[in-house]
Amino acid sequence: MTAPRHADTFTGRQTHCTAFLPRQDFVGERVAIIGSGAAAARLLPGIAAEAARVTVFQTDATWIVPRVPLPAVLLRRAPQRLVRLAARVNLRVQVHDSWLRHRLTPDDTAGVAVHNSYYRTLRQPHCTLVTWPIARLAPLGVRTVDGIEHRVDTIVYAEDAQHVVRTITGAGNPRYTDIPARMKETA
Description:
The protein is globular, with a radius of gyration of 16 Å. It has helices at 37-50, 72-77, 80-94, 98-104, 118-122, and strands at residues 13-17, 30-35, 53-58, 63-65, 111-114, 127-130, 134-138, 141-144, 149-151, 154-158, 166-167, 175-176. By secondary structure, the protein is of the alpha/beta class. The chain has a five-stranded parallel sheet with strand order 1-10-2-3-6, with helices on one face. The chain has a four-stranded mixed sheet with strand order 4-5-11-12. The chain contains five helices and twelve strands.
């Protein structure tokens, strides 16, 4: 992931992560997670357990399906219609706030990730989802194009190349990502 404009002006800590490692790095801090829904789903539960405040700057929404005790190959081979329906039902059941649900709803061709606690963690009072594009980094935080500066102590760039297990295409065949390790639940 490329850092936003003026990343060198931010005075706090910046780090790139692909998976949360419990190290007590975020205790009591205001943390920004910048990345797609799939990458944020991996990092948010662990960071939110330690941080005082977490703001997720979602660059792209991703369909999230719950982890079920079935072989990963079933998700990769299931009909697109069924996967999309399962993801929509999962979102509706777990997120009751219609505005938050709207911001978490990707387009029909978005990737699919497997996670059990992303939506539940995002609903916690100290977690916020921001979908406005980032204009630049400021010395004390992240400024979005709507002019709001979100003050944070640490910025975590969520690397998302390894988190989408399936991409749903519009009308043709689905594209599969054959990495079963991605199916592991981290939170």
